[in-house]
Every structure is written in C-alpha cells, then in structure tokens.
Amino acid sequence: MRLQLVVIGLAGALVLTGCSGDGKPSDDLQIVANPVAATAPVSPATAAKPAGRVLPAAGVTAMAMDASTRTLVVALAEPASLRLYNLDTPDAAPRDVPLAGPAERLTITGGHAVASIPSKSQLARVALPTGTLAPLEVAGQPAAGREAGNQLLVAVRDRKALDVFDGGTLTKSISGKIYSADDVITTTANSTVVLDRLRTAVFAVDVAAGTVGEGLRAGDGATNATADGFGRVLVTDTRDGALLAFSTNPLLMRQRFPVPGGIYGITYDAKRNLAWVTLTERNEVVGFDVRGGEPTEKYRFATVRQPNSVTVDEQTGQVAVGSATGEGIQVIAP
User: Fold this and answer.
1) Is residue 317 part of a domain?
2) Are strands 192-196 and 183-186 parallel, antiparallel or unpaired?
3) CA separation, residue 169 to residues 3, 138, 181, 207 (Å)
4) Is the torsion defined by CA of 283, 37, 190, 232 positive or negative?
5) Which residues contact 102 (CB under 8 A, 6 or more apart)?
6) pTM of structure
7) Which domain holds residue 144?
8) Is the pLDDT confidence value at 144 over 90?
C-alpha cells in the first residue's frame, strides 16, 4: 500500500503562543505535563546480512563526512575519541583523536569537525584530516555546535540557549521559549533553527537580533534534524514514525511523510537530493528522493544492529551507518 503524504500549512501547524478561552496566553507546544525526550527505539538482533562492508568499531555515538578532505569522522564511546578514516584508502589505518568525553553530535564545516561533549561542558573542534584538536569550554551542556561564517553556534541543552562564539569568544547567548536546545541547523536560505527534543518542536532564531522567534510542533517525538538543498529543515519524528519537512522563511510545516520502523538518524546528500534515514526497529537505512511534492523511496538496505548514526559522502554517494551496540561501521555503495 502506498504511503500518503500530508501537506500542512500555517493553519495546520501549532504555533508557540496563543490565547486560552479566558484571554490568557496558552502554550500549544506543551503536549504533556512532564515531557520526556524521545530516544532511538531498541533494535532487535539482525535478521539479514548488512549490505556493503562492515569495519570493526566499538559503540558509535555520531558520524559525519567531510567530502573536501575525504574524511569519515566517527565518534566512539569507549574510549571516548574520534576515529578518522581516509575515504579514498579505507583499508589504511585510521587516526584516533582522544576526547575529554563521548561526543554526542558531529558537524562538519570548512575542513573541521565539531564534536559536542555535553558531559564535559566542551566542544571539540578538530582539523581534518590532521586531527589537530582545539577544545572550547562552554557553560552548561553543549548538545551541538555548528559553524556559520565566522561564528560558531552552540545549542546548550540545560541552559535552553543558543550561544554565539566569534573567534573562541562568547558574544551573545540567545534564549526564550526553548525547553531544551538539542541541535542547531542552518539552511541554504540563511535561516537558523533550533531543535527542541523535550518539547518536540523547532524554533526559528534570529542570530543577528539575538531573539528566539516562532516555534512549531514537530510531531510527537522529534529526535534528529538536518537541512536539505531547498532551504528546508528535515526532522525525524520517532514516536509517530514520520519524516517532516519545514520551510524556514516563514517557519511552516510543509510535509509529513509516514515512515514506520523506528525512524531516527538522518543525513542529506545535496548532490543527489537524497535524505537517508535509519530505522532502528528494523535495522534498515532508507534513501528518499526529496525533490518532488513528496519523498520517494529510492533505496533500502539491511544494516548493522542499532543503526543510530548515518552520514553520506556527497562525492561518491556512499553511505556510512554506525552501530551504537558495537557491531561496527557499515559502508554502503548504493
């Protein structure tokens, strides 16, 4: 049976503030009294042989590709480190970069990997492919860091804020309305969006003005997000099993596409307009073409167990999937 797309405009999206019947402000994003952030569904034992090849590795916590330096960056939990693979010589010994603690999220900008280490109140900025480490101390629990021009934007979970650094110096801290700043996404439309897992919502942020703008619900259990090539933010709604698409100027939910099976990790191939998502309940990774009016499935592969992490090499189209349970790093050539 063909899955059906739901397209939602302004009237169908819940905006941050409204009015209750007595004229007092209400919070349409507060869906339960004590919200709990969604997490990756637990995977069963693998029932099919993982596609491609599998490299041995301990529990993978995050992954990212840098096409410019031909480097696959893998964050490992034990020992806490980044492992750097040369994409052109995958059989060569990787380079390990020790970290102060396990990295929760990785982003790539301008030949650098930015690893968030919330347990140590630190971001690790690692030059690629050399592995030169430059730590940055952050007040609180930095959940994600992303470079935007000369600035470094840092989502700080416990402080419910977006910190802005310039040259290693904190220049402003932006807060308001956010319950938990879990990721920051910058789009091709020059927009900045913060993902709030606890509130299962996305918020527009005006970095120059230092303000948090409108917020919209992102399903019933948003977990991960990425930007696509059309100025949109793509979000995995793990609890409801859906791939969501938000435009950013203005912030509107444009698509909700059902994806059963424990949708969790996400990455985007801008060259091929493919959004790759992992399904942890099925140990699968699926590639969707997002150019049209609704996502179209192009690829589906069996993966290693607990495929929480995924990334893609835009030069070759190769996809890498990381097992959070120690079953390795899987590399697939679609």
Assistant:
1) no
2) antiparallel
3) 48, 10, 20, 16
4) positive
5) 61, 75, 76, 77, 78, 80, 117, 119
6) 0.90
7) 10-14+37-50+64-261
8) yes
Q: Decide if 59 is inside a domain.
A: no
**Omega of the bond prior to 135 within 30 degrees of 0, cis?**
no
Number of domains the chain contains: 1
Cβ pair 162, 206 in contact under 8 A:
no
Q: Tell how strand 211-217 and strand 222-227 pair up.
A: unpaired
Interval 288-312: pLDDT, tens = 999 988 999 999 999 999 999 999 9
Residue 34 host element (H or E): none
**DSSP state string for 252-273:** EEEEEEE-TTTEEEEEEETTTT
Helix/strand/coil percent split, the chain, to 5: 0, 50, 45
The pLDDT tens digits of the residues spanning 95-139 come to 999 999 999 999 998 789 999 999 999 999 999 999 999 999 999
Residue 307 belongs to a domain? no
CA distance 303 to 331: 10
Mean pLDDT of 259-283: 98
C-alpha dihedral over 322, 102, 232, 195, to 10 degrees?
Answer: 130
Q: What CATH number corresponds to the domain at position 44?
A: 2.130.10.10
